[in-house]
Recover the amino acids of this structure.
């Protein structure tokens, strides 16, 4: 059982007991998580927003607040979404007795000088060029993560070849066979029926190309928003069937209709494709794949379960490490679950695994919930 | 030679032979049937390996089946398992693989197991008919 809960406010109330237990265990082994560094951010423009996004994912850091002279600065809106306090003036943030560090990303020398004058004892300040350096590092890290995700996604396309060939060549066979027959078909009704068959086959091949080109595109941050989890899981199933044979897998769906999460739809799709593909591979083409969603005010949860071989405890402890794979050389990049973990963290969620060797595994993703839903509104 | 065998088993010049197409896609079975029926073959269908085993074991098919055309990627009993079963239990019936995925290693392995042809979809009608014609010449007499 492992857990990567990224912060408070991730809907722990609705998280399973096992996940909550794992979090407590993790905090005992990591004192920084139990006593996080408390940071204030001054400036909520591009730099401040990027900083907020990164620091928010780090378990050992707690953001005590963010402020900006411009009340419409994008970072302030983002802070509200993340439940990070927004302060009217930086002086308000400096009043916090437990503050450890102030990060000034305004680039304004007057702000820097005012901060240094008002700095409480024991509080460090990062500003000016140091702050700019930090921002550049943040940007670099963000770019690397996006590139890694995309590289892993494209590497995975190799395993799609058999599925794509199967799904493309079958309708092509129909088109060719029908067209050959039409060349000397004299029955007008048969001609009409076969023409319709050809049109239908062309539409199917077009849909394959559309799905795959859409999946292969680079995730754009501009698309971040509310995602309907159930339709995203269905979309992932369509993509995963190119990578793994689903014909002998029983698929059970237990969807709660209003399950929604905030985040990047392309990245979440990739997460689901990864988890479904792994689940089917674990079953060696025979078994039951269960996709379940639940939604309540506290949390939205997604569970992907299989009845496969399970994960050995020694593998379980390393499963999210980059470049760790149990697949034969050339069959896996070892970046799949590493990227899954990163995306979940970016969405301020957590991932837990329950696995029994010889019986199967369940991956549980827990995301901050939609406050408009009532507590306990969970479908069995 | 093949005409003699056809006449012997299916009783006349009107039928060139009996062919079983095993494919999970109804569209594929439809076009293969269309193409081969026009060429004078009697065509049977099965949607997977399990059904194919049922078909081949039912009634006179045990004796009268001349050629099998089999896909690889299918539910339940897949093509590889079905082919192994057919080669073991019905070695006299020539097998043609008709698959959507060209895989050299798999083709080599299957041809070594006695599969007479490995065709990759989409395949033209003339190519399919020629393959079935060649397979007809490879079939052996059923034990009476």
């Amino acid at each position: 059982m492992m857990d990567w809960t990224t912060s408070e406010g991730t809907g722990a109330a609705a998280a399973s007991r096992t996940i909550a237990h794992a979090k407590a265990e993790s905090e005992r082994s990591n004192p920084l998580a139990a006593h996080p560094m408390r940071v204030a951010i001054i400036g909520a423009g591009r730099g401040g927003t990027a900083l907020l996004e990164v620091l928010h994912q780090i378990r050992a850091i707690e953001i005590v607040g963010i402020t900006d002279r411009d009340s419409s600065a994008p970072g302030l809106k983002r802070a509200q979404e993340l439940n990070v306090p927004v302060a009217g003036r930086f002086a308000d943030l400096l009043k916090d007795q437990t503050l450890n560090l102030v990060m000034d990303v305004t680039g304004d020398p007057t702000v820097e000088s005012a901060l240094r004058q008002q700095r409480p004892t024991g509080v460090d300040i990062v500003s000016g060029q140091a702050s700019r350096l930090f921002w550049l590092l943040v940007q670099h890290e963000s770019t690397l993560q996006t590139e890694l995700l995309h590289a892993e996604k494209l590497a995975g396309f190799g395993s799609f070849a058999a599925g794509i060939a199967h799904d493309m060549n079958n309708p092509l066979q129909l088109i060719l066979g029908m067209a050959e027959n039409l060349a000397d078909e004299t029955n007008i009704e048969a001609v009409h029926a076969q023409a319709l068959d050809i049109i239908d086959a062309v539409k199917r091949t077009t849909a394959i190309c559309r799905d795959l080109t859409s999946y292969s595109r680079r995730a754009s941050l501009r698309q971040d928003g509310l995602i309907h989890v159930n339709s995203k899981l269905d979309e992932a199933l369509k993509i995963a069937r190119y990578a793994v044979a689903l014909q002998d897998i029983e698929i059970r769906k237990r969807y709660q209709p209003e399950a929604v999460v905030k985040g990047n739809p392309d990245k979440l799709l990739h997460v689901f494709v990864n988890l479904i593909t792994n689940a089917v591979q674990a079953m060696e083409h025979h078994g039951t794949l269960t996709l379940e969603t639940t939604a309540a005010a506290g949390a939205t949860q997604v569970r992907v379960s299989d009845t496969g071989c399970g994960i050995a405890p020694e593998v379980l402890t390393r499963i999210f490490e980059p470049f760790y794979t149990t697949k034969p050389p050339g069959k896996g990049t070892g970046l799949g679950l590493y990227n899954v973990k990163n995306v979940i963290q970016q969405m301020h969620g957590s991932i837990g695994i329950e696995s029994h060797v010889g019986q199967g595994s369940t991956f549980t993703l827990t995301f901050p919930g939609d406050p408009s839903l009532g507590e306990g509104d969970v479908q069995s | 030679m093949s005409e003699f065998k056809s006449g012997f088993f299916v009783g006349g010049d009107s039928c060139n032979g009996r062919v079983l197409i095993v494919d999970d896609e109804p569209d594929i079975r439809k076009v293969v049937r269309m193409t081969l029926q026009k060429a004078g073959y009697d065509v049977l269908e099965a949607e997977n390996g399990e059904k194919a085993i049922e078909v081949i074991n039912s009634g006179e098919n045990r004796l009268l089946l001349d050629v099998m055309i089999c896909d690889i990627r299918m539910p339940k009993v897949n093509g590889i398992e079905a082919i192994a079963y057919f080669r073991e239990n019905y070695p006299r019936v020539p097998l043609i693989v008709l698959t959507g995925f060209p895989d050299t290693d798999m083709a080599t392995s299957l041809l070594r197991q006695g599969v007479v042809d490995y065709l990759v979809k989409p395949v033209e009608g003339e190519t399919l008919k020629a393959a079935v014609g060649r397979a007809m010449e490879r079939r052996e007499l059923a034990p009476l």
User: Anything to note?
Assistant: The longest strand of chain A covers residues 287-295. Chain A has three domains: 36-126, 159-216, 224-368. Chain A has 13 helices and twelve strands. The interface with chain B takes residues 161-162, 165-178, 180-181, 197, 201, 245, 247-248 of chain A (CB under 8 Å).
